[in-house]
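Troubleshooting: if your tokenizer reports a length mismatch, compare your output against this known-good record of 82 residues.
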Amino acid sequence: FEDARASLKRAIYLDHNFVLAYFALANLSVRLGKIAEARKHFGNTTEILSKYKPDEIIPESEGITAKRFSEMINAFYLKGLQ
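Known-good structure output:
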């Protein structure tokens, strides 16, 4: 997990708007039981997503739109972390 975490942080360092890296880091934080950290990363994810148009495809997402990705985060992750 630590290698994955370090790799994701490097990806974010290289591209501060790489939304999927923040999302993956949030999921990893949940798995490690670091809920406060997960909330922070999900917050970064949603903040970056807010800059996209709803029908815009998220880079590297295999065709997922910003609206759909936001809905997924809200439905599955943010509600479970409250």
